[in-house]
Automatic annotation (TrEMBL):
Residues 298-309 have a biased composition (Basic and acidic residues). Residues 2-180 form the Formyl transferase N-terminal domain. This is Methionyl-tRNA formyltransferase. (6S)-5,6,7,8-tetrahydrofolate binds at S110, L111, L112, P113. Residues 205-300 form the Formyl transferase C-terminal domain.
Length: 309
């Protein structure tokens, strides 16, 4: 099939590469978010998907809005059979959805109808789900509500961060997308409407404020939140009036501490929660590099009774 691939960030790259490598499909163009400033120098850079397309000499389309007439005209000229999508980052109007013969097929990193929305991997970890996965579905106007072609499952491991889990799902999901498109081309796969009676849940985009760690919660909830927002946007708490970034923590076997109270030991730094303490891993103070919590505590000369909030 002739394909126009839509995607933007790094998790979309494995699927684009798999489709480029597929002997059965031809990626004739990609749609990605416009080049944007990044890094300390704020230099304008291509998205990861756009950069990979450049490497393979594939046309890159970067509409500010998908409903722009120029973009819709170009997509109509290309006349793709199907438009696979992974984390593109913009809503698609019906006029665009109607152009490809086989529609737009999205790879979503959850077992739909669970965790529709922008941050399904983060939501699954924070909720304490034991199993997650990925789904391919035909995009319709309603958010992530289209009929599903295929699914895969993936266990959530005890120490998985959102970044680690998303990396695994991105690789496995690439194979799922290729097999889905193979089936569409062969006519051997059928999209099945989502069983909303099984429970619909939504995963909103994670903000910096969402990543503020509430140490009055139980230790297990603190652990899940920190892992859910690692690496982006990154967990944090206040210490001496400034934000201290927190890497993944572990629930510690230790005597209870008041929520937020910091206890510095020779080989570990503990922080109280509503239940047992958590042990800090790496932390990052303002203007400093990431470091082990024990090194930070020595340098900051943390005093008995001081707290994170």
């Amino acid at each position: 099939m002739r394909l126009v691939f839509a995607g933007t960030p790094e998790p979309a790259v494995p699927t684009l590469q798999a489709l480029i490598d597929s002997p059965r499909h031809e990626v004739v163009a990609v749609v990605t978010r416009p080049d944007a400033p990044a890094g300390r120098g704020r230099h304008v850079v291509r998205s990861p998907v756009g950069a990979l397309a450049d490497e393979h000499g594939i046309e890159v389309l970067m509409p500010q809005r998908v409903k722009e007439p120029e973009f819709l005209e170009r997509l109509t000229e290309i006349a793709p059979d199907c438009c696979p999508v992974v984390a593109y980052g913009a809503l698609l109007p019906q006029v665009a959805l109607d152009i490809p013969v086989h529609g737009w097929v999205n790879l979503h990193f959850s077992l739909l109808p669970a965790w529709r929305g922008a941050a399904p991997v983060q939501a699954a970890i924070r909720a304490g789900d034991e199993i997650t996965g990925a789904s391919t579905f035909r995009i319709v106007k309603e958010l992530d509500a289209g009929p599903v072609f295929g699914v895969l499952t993936e266990p959530i491991r005890p120490h998985d961060t959102a970044g680690v889990l998303l990396d695994r799902l991105a690789v496995a999901g690439a194979d799922l997308m290729v097999s889905t498109l193979d089936g569409i081309e062969d006519g051997t796969i059928r999209a099945v409407e989502q069983q909303e009676a099984d429970g619909v849940s939504y995963a909103s985009k994670i903000t910096v404020e969402d990543a503020h760690v509430d140490l009055t919660q139980p230790a297990i909830a603190v652990d899940r939140l920190v892992r859910a927002v690692t690496p982006d946007p990154g967990a944090w708490a206040q210490f001496r009036g400034e934000r201290l970034k927190l890497g993944p923590v572990t629930v510690a076997a230790a005597e209870a501490l008041p929520p937020g109270e910091v206890k510095v030991e020779r080989k570990r730094v503990l922080v109280g929660t509503a239940t047992q303490p958590v042990r800090l891993g790496d932390v990052q103070a303002p203007g400093k590099k990431k470091m082990a919590a024990t090194d930070w505590a020595r340098g900051a000369r943390v005093e008995q009774g001081e707290r994170l909030s």
